[in-house]
Design a protein that fits this description.
43% of the residues lie in helices and 13% in strands. By secondary structure, the protein is α/β, with parallel strands linked by helices. It has three domains: 149 residues, DNA polymerase beta, N-terminal domain-like (DNA polymerase, domain 1, Orthogonal Bundle); 135 residues, Beta Polymerase, domain 2 (2-Layer Sandwich), CATH 3.30.460; 236 residues, Metal-dependent hydrolases (TIM Barrel, Alpha-Beta Barrel), CATH 3.20.20.140. The strands form three sheets. Strands 8-9-10-11-12-13-14 form a seven-stranded parallel beta sheet. It has a five-stranded mixed beta sheet with strand order 2-4-7-6-5, with helices on both faces. A two-stranded antiparallel ribbon has the order 1-3. The model has no long low-confidence stretch (mean pLDDT 93). The chain binds zinc ion (2 copies). One zinc ion (ZN) binds next to loops.
């Protein structure tokens, strides 16, 4: 069990105990354990009781629970509460922004025991008079519930890939050496996956016994549809060696894309490329096959299509100076070892107190550390950036003299996200117009499948970036992927460069760049339209003109 998974159990336990109105001190200690354990770097499963008890804030009781989790994969205390809680009420706890206290009121005072019941109660205005709610909170909750229902049964790309890998492993056991590949949305590298599809060519008639946790939804000679718990449906398309090329092409594109082409003569081909040639189909890469118009526009775009290996520098990373897990030295060392030529470290600015943002004296101290590291790591170079909060007024987060000292400023909105369109645009445009802003960070603030983000007029925003030569970030964290890739073509047309930034909060987070590249490829982004494909020299010239 990973440290994050172990930590997650304590968060859920704390929620569950709060739901049942237990002792607040105990609840606080589990919440604290969640925060501490999440960031712990040594693998907790390998530590003894004595070693665990030495972690600050982790006493005997929590240490024993960690051992229990490592040994059994379960937590009896959690089970005890779960057994006394309707399943639908546990579902309510999973809705972002609702929280155990409110769920308790809804459950105990209103008798609501599922998401559907709660949505209905909102329709009936039953929350207006309820303690701690009211008209505004009811409307807000209704939005959250509708978003939850809409996105239920979907997964972000990395998690969907994990489900697909589990299915692949089962198929390999059923027929060792058989050919299996991802197709459909996974092969198109969609940020959010509604259906997981695999193409399988068994060597002989293989059968599968039902695995625990999986149910068969449909089973025909041509395909099987499975489901694992609440996850998206998994379709396994079954084909032959000669039919592979055609079936891979047919199952990869969206139905709109595939149905736009005339019937072909079913040429047999064991590879997709050969099939496409024989059937006279356009040479569109899988990522583009959302619709014919989309693919044709992407194919027309100039320059070499972006690849992960074309990225030369890491822009947007956090260290222990603010809310990162690893030190500046560790971040720089990893970036260098991974073959990058430069790192722009951008810890949080002073208003981000929750993330240990940097006051001006710590900005100075960090600059001194960067200078020391740079003399050691040359020719690799660390640039001193900051991720400046865009304040409610639209201003950046330091006095002008402090702002002037940074090599690069990413301006991002992190607080007071509940805004209408005019307010959001006022803040964004003010930040874009600020002469010190070089990159606009995660422009909509969305978190895929968990937060919609504030409303943005994308055209206006991108046009303002063009006027003020501000680069737009494609935040590569797979939970964000913000700017949405569908807006990249407009940015390219306006002459706005895209920075594919990992927003790394640990050394491992640097690898998220590949998720950003994946969706940038969907939009046909060329190497020349991306900021961090610049060599160190080019990047220095861009920074210090
Ligand atoms: Zn941020
Ligand atoms: Zn950040």
């Amino acid at each position: 069990m990973t440290n994050k998974e172990i930590a997650g159990w304590f968060r859920r336990l704390a929620d569950m105990m709060e739901l049942h109105g237990e002792n607040p001190f105990k609840i606080r200690s589990y919440q604290q354990a969640y925060v501490t354990l999440r960031k712990w770097t040594d693998p907790l499963s390998d530590l003894t009781l004595e070693e665990l008890a030495e972690i600050p804030g982790i006493g005997k009781a929590i240490s024993e629970k960690i051992r229990e989790l490592a040994e059994t994969g379960d937590l009896a205390t959690y089970r005890k509460y779960a057994n006394q809680t309707p399943e639908g009420v546990i579902d309510l706890l999973a809705i972002p922004g609702v929280g155990p206290k409110k769920v308790r009121t809804l459950w105990k005072d209103l008798g609501v025991e599922s998401v559907g019941e709660l949505l209905y109660a909102c329709h009936e205005n039953r929350l207006i008079e309820l303690n701690g709610f009211g008209l505004k909170k009811q409307a807000d909750l209704k939005n959250k519930l509708e978003f939850y229902m809409l996105t239920k049964g979907q997964l972000r790309y990395p998690e969907a890939l994990q489900v697909a890998d589990r299915v692949k492993a089962l198929l390999q056991v059923a027929d060792p050496g058989s050919r299996i590949e991802e197709t459909g949305e996974l092969r198109r590298k969609c940020p959010v996956i509604k259906n997981i599809s695999l193409l399988w060519c068994p060597q002989e008639k293989a059968t599968l016994s039902a695995e625990e946790g999986w149910t068969f939804v449909e089973k025909t000679p041509a395909h099987w549809i499975w489901q694992e718990e609440e996850n998206p449906l998994v379709t396994v398309w079954i084909t032959t060696v000669e039919g592979w090329g055609q079936r891979l092409w047919e199952t990869t594109g969206s139905s709109a894309y595939v149905s736009s082409f005339q019937q072909w003569t079913n040429p047999l081909a064991p590879e997709e490329g050969t099939f496409m040639q024989l059937a006279n189909l356009p040479d569109h890469i899988p990522e583009w096959r959302e619709s014919v118009d989309w693919a044709q526009a992407a194919a027309k775009r100039e320059g070499d299509l972006i690849t992960t290996s074309a990225i030369r520098g890491v822009i947007h990373a956090h260290s222990t100076w603010s809310d990162g897990i690893h030190s500046l030295e560790e971040m720089a060392f990893t970036a260098k070892e991974s073959g990058f030529a430069y790192l722009v470290i951008t810890d949080h600015s002073q208003s981000a107190f929750y993330a240990n943002g940097l006051k001006p004296d710590r900005v100075k101290a960090q600059r001194a550390e960067i200078a020391t590291l740079n003399s050691r790591l040359a020719p690799f170079r660390i640039f001193h950036g900051i991720e400046s909060d865009i304040l409610y007024t639209g201003a950046l987060d330091y006095d002008q003299d402090v702002l002037d000292g940074f090599d690069l400023i990413i301006a991002s909105i992190h607080s007071q996200l509940k805004m209408d369109l005019p307010k959001a645009m006022e803040r964004l445009l003010a930040a874009i117009e600020h002469p010190n802003t070089r990159i606009l960070g995660h422009p909509t603030g969305r978190l895929l499948l968990s937060r919609e983000g504030y409303p943005v007029d994308h055209k206006k925003m991108i046009e303002a970036c063009a006027r003020h030569q501000v680069v737009v970030e494609l935040n590569a964290n797979p939970q964000r992927l913000d700017l949405d890739y569908t807006w990249i073509p407009y940015a390219i047309d306006c002459g706005v460069k895209i920075a594919i930034n990992p927003d790394a909060h640990s050394t491992g987070g640097i690898r998220d760049i590949s998720y950003g590249v994946q969706v940038a490829r969907k939009a046909g982004l060329g190497v020349g339209n991306c900021l961090n494909t610049m060599s160190l020299k080019e990047f220095e010239d861009w920074l210090f003109v």
